[in-house]
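Example record for the data management plan.
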Amino acid sequence: MIKTTLILNKLHSADAHAFRWCAARKHRDQLAEISRWISRTGDGPWYAAIGLLFAAFGGDTGWWFFLTGLLAYGLDVPLYVLLKKSFKRERPFVRLGSSPYLLPSDEFSFPSGHTAAATVWATLISAYFPPLAPLAWCWALAVGASRVLLGVHYPGDIAAGMVLGGSCAAVALSVVG
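Corresponding structural encoding:
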């Protein structure tokens, strides 16, 4: 138990250092408005709306994309909530006394739900619509980066969100596949 605590403390220290480095970058205030917009594109209702468009107009591929997405998000959302409630990691602006550029919808930061959802999306786009994969991955990375720049997540939260989202998408693809 002591070794685990030491490892977690070292990981948090490195994560806090990386967060502070990001927070100290020039032009952070100017990036906040762009980051807010990018972050909003990662809100849940957009996935449902665009998924329905793919299902309606994407032929069989669009329909399978939609069904796989339902399964992936059906796994992702409860796991995300369970992890948030289990780890109860304070958001960086609370723990480090910084000011966020937006107020998050929940109290805890680990893992990043926006990043997990964006990673599910990018993974499924890669599987069903490969020509769109580079754009989807650039967008997913931008969503994760925006959450750090807005002061509501540590970089480690983003990495954990990517692992969670990618894992849920992989399971869904293997089941539907």
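Summary line stored alongside the record: The mean pLDDT is 88.
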